[in-house]
Structures are given as C-alpha cells and as structure tokens.
Amino acid sequence: MSAAETKEPVDLEEDFASSTSLHGFNRAMVAPNRFLRYMWILAILASNGAFAYMFVAMLQDYFQYNTITDMTLEFADEVTFPAVSICNFNRVDLDKATMAELEYLSPMLYGSSMDETALRDFLDLPAVNGTGTSTTTTPSTNFTHSFSVYGNCYTFNGDRTSPFKQTAEGTGFPSSNGLHLVLDVMDQYSTESAMIAGHGEVGIRVLLHDQSEPPVMDSQASAIAPGKHSFMAVRQTRYRNHVPPWGKCAELQLRHHDTYSLPACQLECRSSHVEQACQCTPYFLPGTAPPCDPQTIYQCVHRVLNQLVSGELRCDCPIPCTMTKYGSAVTYSGYPNRITKKIYNNAFNLTPDYIRENGIVLDVYYDTLNYQKISQLKAVDSGQLASNMGGMMGLFIGASVMTILEVAEYLGLKIGRYCSRRQRPLAINVEPASLKKSGDGNSKSHNIIYQ
Fold first, then answer.
1. CB 240 within 8 A of CB 322
2. Which of 18, 164, 185, 222 has the most CB atoms at less than 10 Å from its CB?
3. What is the pTM of this model?
4. Interatomic CA distance for residues 146 and 224, integer angstroms
C-alpha cells in the first residue's frame, strides 16, 4: 500500500475552525487551556445569538413596510398656473329664467312646486310682464363651462394640453400678471333662500385645481364675499405616493374621465349611488342615466348625498400615486376707494352701495415661483436591509459574503465525505482453513471484497 493510501484524512472541523474568517473559532482551537476554550466558545455563542436577534428584528422591521416622508422645496423660472373654477352662490338668475322655467325648477329651489302667483309673491316680482328671457351666456375663449351644485360654473385655464405658466412672481402691478377679475354677483337677481332648500350666501366660490381634475365646488372651494379686493397667493404641492404594500396608492379605470384623480373618482361614486337609488343622473354629476327632474333631485338625490356624507354609503377611491394640489393664502383689502367709486358711477352708473353689495375684485397669482414636493419613501429598502445585515454580520460574527462561501465549502466537503464513506466497498481479510491447519508459513491470505 502506498503512502498516499495510508495518509490519514484531514479533520474538516479542525481545518475549518483554524482557517475560517469567522471571529473566535480559531482562538477556541488554539486556546492553551480548557477554561479559555470554554470562554471563547461562550463568546462565540453570545455573538451568534446577538446577531440572530438583530437579524430577526431587521426582517420584522422590513416587512412592516413602514414609510418616511421626504419634503423638498423646488424653485423654477416658470410654474404651471392652476385651473381656476368660479361659481356664483345663486344657481338661477332671475333676469335669465322665464316664469315657466322657475315653476319647473321650484321643487329643487324651494322644496315644493310653486305656481306663478306664489313665485311672484316669494321673489317680490310685479304681477305683470315676465321675469326675463331665457338666454345662454358664451364664456371667453380662456374659460370653459361646467355644472356643479351651484349651477353654472366657469373654469379659467382648464386646458391640460397647454396650460398657462407664470414667469414672474407677484400680482404684476402695474403690469399684467396672474389672473385679475372684476365680477358682479348681481344679488338683485337671486332666487334662493337658505331657509328653503337653497343657498343664502352672497358671493362666489373659487377653486384652484389641476387641469386633469374636475372641480368639486361644494367640498373644496373657497368663498369670496363682495365688497372686497381678494388676493389669492397660490401654493403648488406635488405628491408622489408609494404603491402597496408600502403605501395605498392606486389608479382605477374611470367610466367618465380619461385620467384618474380623487375628485373624479368621488364624483363618479356619487353618480353611481344616485343612479342606483334614483334611476337618473342629476345635472351636476357625470352619468349616462336619464336626467333627474327637480322633484327627484330634492326628494331622492339629496337623500343619497346625505347618506354619503353621514357614512351610510361609502366610496372606494384610493389615493393616486402622483397628483398635484393647489392651496392658497387669501388676504383682503377694502374696495373701491373714493376715486374708483366716482369712475364706476360715471362709466357704468353703479352706486357705491351697489358696488359694496355686489362687486368682487379677485387676483390669483404666485407670490413666489416655487413648488413643494412631498414623496412617500420606503423606511427600509432592499439595499438598506442588505447593508444593515452586512454591518451586523461584521460587528457580531465577523462574517461577509466570502465567509458564507467558506461555510458552504465546509458543508459541501462534509456532505461529500459522508456520502463517499457510505459508498466505499467493505474489505474482509479471509484465510483458508486448509492453509491455516498445515501451518505453512508461506501461505497467503486472500482478500474477499463484499460490496
């Protein structure tokens, strides 16, 4: 038998412990006495236990899908101007609606049907002639028309394909900058009362919104009263929300809007509940059902909308993954001064009392050319998890990716040696009995191999 065949096999445990980069193993192997060896073994077990605890804690933290919020302020040479939607509190103008139209609308405006005599008495109209002529107002080319719970509304800069941009901050006096409007609310033509199913306010509602969102005037718009010059300084905020499981954002396919947005989803949800309960679509909601008549709006539609407000009916409208919102800081000044009163009186025959009760001057503008970005980020992403685990491995057990390969090599050799032992043939030395009895010293034994 050769020297190579008689060589003792290498002790894998001793070789691994003396050569591995894992902390403590080689010290335990070369410890000069039993006490130090036990101390090193105890230290190894404690370090590995601490690492296992931190490993489990990091995995639990990762799979909780926590998020953090990143807020930055970006400055730009130009900022997209918002869409500005404006509605008068008064839904029906007395000078434009005929008496027949008012009779038809009376259930919605006043809660019950009213004939011409009752309407003239309620509205303080003379007993002769009509109230007005049914007309249609044509908005400017920069304004688009829409319906809301306040009736006719008009949106400035509503084209999302080519929105206006503001390139200089401030209201722009004395040059033109932002949006400047002079409005007459015409309170003398109001047809509603807060005591009877209508609005009792005088003024307008103004909503700043993204061009991709429909205006929801009843829940989001600001109120502007007459007799003031109102200054609305715009604030733009861009949101970026995370998808599940870290966040809750999603973008659904809507039936009546091309782009998903929270206001569009809420309007379609309202419409769906109303169509299901009332079998019609009111004028201020999108839908394909037949239009609701005024009596149905007062008796059925208002009831369904109240159920939505109270929580009896719900809307499943997730937050969009990206959206742009506009806020404003509103300040006021008195208007007009005595010289302006005189000019209005001479040019338009408007008295100071009429201007105070009906006139609104509105400026909408960016006071600074910037916008805020709010992003929802993972508290721990996969890269941070790997980095944290690597740091804990190095701190407690001195391991790295290469150490994992060392352990894999040791386990592979161990398994290979175990399998080779099970498959190695068993050799038995057998000596024939006849040769053993003859006592022949020259006799030779025979090796019989059993598989």
1. yes
2. 185
3. 0.78
4. 19
